[in-house]
Batch of 3 targets.
Target 1
Amino acid sequence: MIDVFQQASKKKRQAESILADLDLVRKWERFGRPALVGAFAYDILVTPDIDMEIYCPDLRIEHVGGWTVGSRLRDGTEWKIDMGSAPKDYHPTRAEDLVEPMRTVRRRLPTVQPPT
């Protein structure tokens, strides 16, 4: 039986492959600093979903917003990639600020078996 964290690790490898194929991080760098956040960044990826925030030094109206891209693997799995922009000096808690605390919590969790 595979544990939840092994499943998450497999999903993360799939997500990394998708990101590399689409080259999204490099493409967003012309607008600002992309940061992978959410379950992907926390190493607890369970559903086929990737989240990215782009912190823009000169946020113009055409950069403001959120975008979703879909990607389908050969096995039929549909992935969703959500991306949003924010000013580089965005002051409320940024999703990227939660990455390290969440990874620390994740490392302290015992191996978990998925429900049967």
Target 2
Amino acid sequence: MSQVLRRYLQKGLGFHSLTGTTEEFLDELRSSSRVPASVEKPLAGFLQQCDLIKFAGQNADEELCLALLEKTRLLLDEAEKLASQAGAEESGGSLSAVPEAREEVA
């Protein structure tokens, strides 16, 4: 699920989200004026939770997976709003990633 968000943010807002660690990505996000703290903080928590599951072997029971899926949907909504506000031309990205990302979390 974290890859879905990273891919969307890369395509929709022009971040280099697929090429670095979560911390590198969050550093890029924080140094940008494109993402407000009200979105950055939940996104950071989500990505760090995904890292715990992927790299530290944290148990991902059904309840946690459903909660992360819902967070993914909410964060996609927020990212879509940000990309719309920024404009695809200005950010160098494309909003065409939205339907693809939504299909992946459906």
Target 3
Amino acid sequence: MELTNAKVVAEKAIRVAQKSEARLRTIADNLPALITYFDAGQVLRFANKPHEEQFGQGVGEMTGRAMKEVLGKDEYEKRKPHIEAALRRRCAKETRWRAWVATNSW
């Protein structure tokens, strides 16, 4: 009986998380800005719909790819000092880096 209850609770938690993710995706996809999240391994984990126009490929195609692949070698090398600073958890620079990646301007 306990196992059944745990399974029901887990399934409900998954449904709640999926609805929350779908809501976030809808909001992010409709913002007039590029929103990107790369993990500590520099793998793209989230990008909103406007990236499709900016990079000429679907979000699904970019997700899971390395930052260097998404940006291209030249752009990656230009941004590398900022990327490394962000990975060292320099909050102000990380925020600035994220804004820069999104807009390509400071």
